[in-house]
Amino acid sequence: MREKLRRGLRQNLCQNLCLIASMLAIVASCAAQQPDGPQSGAPPAVAPAPPPATPQAGSGERIAVPSGTRVGVVLQNGISTRSAKAGDSVYLQTSFPITANNRIVIPVGSYLRGELLEAKRPGRIKGRGEFRMRLDTLILPNGYTVDLRAAPRSADSGGKETMDSEGKITGGGNKGQKVGTVVSTTATGAGIGAIATRTPKGAGIGAGIGAAAGLAAVLLTRGPEAELPRGSTMDVVLEHDLSLDASQIQFNNLGQFQPVFQPPVRQERPEP
Asked: pLDDT tens digit string along 58-110?
């Protein structure tokens, strides 16, 4: 009887020890999963991602403005075949910004410089004044200077000048003016002859003299000059891709256009 009692006590003791050991193991596991120190309810802040780095000087990044791009410009010095000659400088200023990848790369107020390739006065019997220019330098408002190759394709000068596909500007025609000169002098001569002689024959002689005088005036008068006054607006077209250093177009000032008065409508005037 005593032996059975001892065995029962031993079994109960072993069961209790196993139960206590299991409970201690569970408690230790839960304690290991908890972070040390006091905890707050808010999660730790996540550091924001750094902004993309802007190109730095010497980064080597290039921005290309493709050939065929049209640039609106205003002429800063007038041109006339009365005095122009090949090699004369031409100065223009951009009137509208040019962008690439949603970024202004040629701001308003940039300068273009070029020169006249040829300039020819009109003839006395026939022909019109004409000149042709080429643009070769671009200066941005921050002073960054690059070489380019561009030529005008259209112009608004306030006159009758025309421009061909190669950028040659030609003066307007004056055939009607020449015919009017001959007719006017003929009528004037006829009137003078009729008054002087009071006969139809005198009127005919006067008309002949007047016609001869008008024809002489036409032969001694030059055709229309080609002119682009200061303030003429033009579109120039890039003939080759324009490569710009990205580090040089980080503008603090995007440029400012200096307005000029538009050229008035000009009356053609003959020149002896």
From this structure: 457 899 999 999 999 999 999 999 999 999 999 999 999 999 888 899 999 99
CB 160 within 8 A of CB 170: no
- Residue 15 buriedness (CB in 10 A; 0-12 / 13-18 / 19+): exposed
What is the spatial distance between Cα 139 and Cα 112, in angstroms, rounded to a whole number? 6
**CA–CA separation, 12 and 4 (whole Å):** 12
| 19-to-6, 14, 22, 24 alpha-carbon distances in Å | 20, 9, 5, 9
This prediction has a pTM of 0.58
What letter would DSSP give residue 246? G
Burial of 33 (0-12, 13-18, 19+ CB in 10 A): exposed
Tokens, residue 232: 């003429």
In the chain, where are the structural domains located? 62-171+226-248, 175-220
CA distance 96 to 133: 21
Strand partners, 163: 169
Please state which CATH class domain 62-171+226-248 belongs to: mainly beta
Quick one: which of 151, 144, 167 has its CA closest to 69? 151
d(CA 185, CA 159): 27
